[in-house]
Amino acid sequence: MARAIDKQTMLDLIIEAKKTDPEAGPFSEWLAEYLVDHLPTLTPPNEWVSVETPPTTQGWYHVAVLDLKTGKYTVEQDLYSIELAKAHGFEPGFCKANRWEERERIDYWCRFPAPPDRRPPEGDA
C-alpha cells in the first residue's frame, strides 16, 4: 500500500530546497521539472489516456474504440487483464483489442470512477 504523504513535511522540503539552491533558476520551474521526472502518475483520474501508456493494474476500464470505416468512436467497458494474459502466454491487454483488426481500434482508456460511497462529498477536496 502506498505511503501517505505528510503535507507539512513536503512543504518543509520545498521551502528548504528553495533556500539552499538559489542558483538553480526560478524555483517553480525546478519544482515542475522535478515533479514531471518523479511523479509520472499525475494524470487525474477519469481522464482519457492513450493506449501507448497502458494501465499497470488489472481492472475494469472504459475504452474508446475507433470504427475505422466511419471514423467515429464508441465508449465501451473492458477488462484490462494482466494476470490472465500472462497465465495463457499472451501480452497483457484489453479484451476487446483486435476483435476486428480491419474494422476497429482501441485508442484510449479511462479508469472507472470510484463508487459514490468512496468519493468525498460534493465540495470536499
Q: Largest sheet, if any?
A: 5 strands, antiparallel
Cα distance, first to last residue? Answer: 21 Å
Assign the structural class, choosing from mainly alpha, mainly beta, alpha/beta, alpha+beta, or little secondary structure. alpha+beta
The share of residues in extended strands comes to 15-25%
Helix content: 10-25%
Strand arrangement across the biggest beta sheet: 1-5-2-3-4
**What order do the SSEs take from the amino end to the carboxyl end, as H and E?**
HHEEEHEE
The helix tally amounts to 3
Model regions low in confidence, pLDDT < 50 over at least 5 residues: none
Return the domain count: 2
Q: What's the assembly state of these chains?
A: single chain
Return the average pLDDT rounded to an integer: 75
Number of strands: 5
Radius of gyration: 20 Å
Please give a structural write-up.
The chain has helices spanning 7-20, 27-38, 83-87; strands at residues 49-50, 59-67, 73-81, 93-94, 104-111. The protein has 125 residues and is an alpha+beta fold. It has 2 domains: 7-38, no CATH class; 49-114, no CATH class. A 5-stranded antiparallel sheet has the order 1-5-2-3-4. A hairpin with a 5-residue loop joins strand 2 and strand 3 (73-81).
